[in-house]
């Protein structure tokens, strides 16, 4: 299973390449969770252009069929259940 850090680094490289390929004087980064925030900041820092971060706040857990679910944990659990 891929680690969260691998996805973060991949996203940072994606942001860096997108910003390098576009002639911009600055960028507004819209982030939404603990994975995208550092990824976008790392990408913008690598390009060395001014950046403003706008966050959507924390991603809260939800309920499904009476059970608490989270975004990442439940996804991997569902994937393992489907394989079995």
From TrEMBL:
Domain Dihydroxy-acid/6-phosphogluconate dehydratase N-terminal: 5-69
Domain of life: Bacteria
PROSITE patterns with a match to the protein in the record: ILVD_EDD_1
EC class name: lyase
Keywords: Iron, Iron-sulfur, Lyase, Metal-binding
Metal-binding listed as a keyword: yes
EC number: 4.2.1.9
GO MF annotation terms: dihydroxy-acid dehydratase activity; iron-sulfur cluster binding; metal ion binding
Homology family: Belongs to the IlvD/Edd family.
Designated name of the protein: Dihydroxy-acid dehydratase
Natural source organism: Thalassospira lucentensis
Organism placement in taxonomy: Bacteria, Pseudomonadati, Pseudomonadota, Alphaproteobacteria, Rhodospirillales
């Amino acid at each position: 299973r891929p680690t969260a850090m691998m996805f973060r680094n991949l996203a940072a490289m994606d942001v860096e390449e997108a910003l390098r390929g576009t002639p911009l004087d600055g960028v507004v980064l819209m982030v939404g969770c603990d994975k995208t925030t550092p990824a976008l900041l790392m990408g913008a820092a690598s390009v060395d252009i001014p950046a403003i971060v706008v966050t959507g706040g924390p991603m809260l857990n939800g309920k499904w069929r009476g059970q608490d679910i989270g975004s990442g944990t439940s996804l991997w659990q569902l994937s393992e259940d489907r394989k079995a």
